[in-house]
């Protein structure tokens, strides 16, 4: 079954778990978003390179890295899982508080999220998810754009807001504030 909508057009994680068939779905504030079509070749290439570097860096450390499809439930408070209205599948995520992990995925904000932009996901990644991740306290949010070969890095400030992003060009190096000692050369990611 795919989403058909109720009177309010809002869904919960309980509804989400019943959806079968083609495509992948995300819920943001109870609204269902179809994540099809599948990612492009360049998207997959950037994802793989970034994921491998993170995985190698995190070996033997407390933090762990995952890639989509992997459910991240973002409750607004202490509601039960079935009532959660936001479930996303970031391209890449890093979780350092392992108590957030369970058999279903992650409940609560990951420490680092990386989304890789495609034409179909641009407004979702640059606007909707930016606001969502800020609201839920994702400490660091990277938006990688393979087309213009840049990465925008948002970091939570002391007021719990994302300030002006750091924009890293295609040959630049990104240093993570969340993962001390982790850096990546974008030339190696985009080439």
TrEMBL record:
Gene3D superfamilies: tt1808, chain A (3.90.1570.10). InterPro entries: Nuclease_put_TT1808 (IPR012296), Restrct_endonuc-II-like (IPR011335), Uma2 (IPR008538). SUPFAM superfamilies: Restriction endonuclease-like. It comes from the Bacteria. Residues 15-186 form the Putative restriction endonuclease domain. This is Putative restriction endonuclease domain-containing protein.
């Amino acid at each position: 079954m795919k989403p058909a909508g109720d009177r309010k057009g809002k869904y919960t994680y309980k509804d989400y778990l019943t959806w079968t068939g083609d495509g992948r779905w995300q819920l943001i504030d109870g609204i269902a978003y179809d994540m099809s079509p599948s990612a492009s070749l360049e998207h997959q290439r950037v994802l793989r390179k970034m994921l491998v570097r993170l995985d190698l860096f995190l070996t033997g450390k407390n933090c762990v890295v995952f890639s989509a499809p992997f459910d991240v439930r973002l409750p607004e408070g202490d509601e039960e899982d079935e009532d959660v209205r936001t479930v996303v599948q970031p391209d890449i995520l890093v979780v350092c508080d392992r108590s957030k992990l369970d058999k279903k995925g992650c409940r609560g904000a990951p420490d680092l999220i990386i989304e890789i932009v495609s034409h179909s996901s641009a407004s979702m990644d640059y606007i909707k998810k930016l606001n969502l991740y800020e609201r839920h306290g994702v400490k660091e949010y990277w938006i990688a754009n393979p087309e213009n070969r840049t990465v925008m890095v948002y970091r939570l400030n002391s007021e719990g807001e994302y300030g002006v992003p750091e924009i890293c060009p295609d040959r630049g190096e990104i240093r993570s504030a969340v993962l001390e000692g982790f850096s990546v050369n974008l030339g190696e990611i985009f080439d």
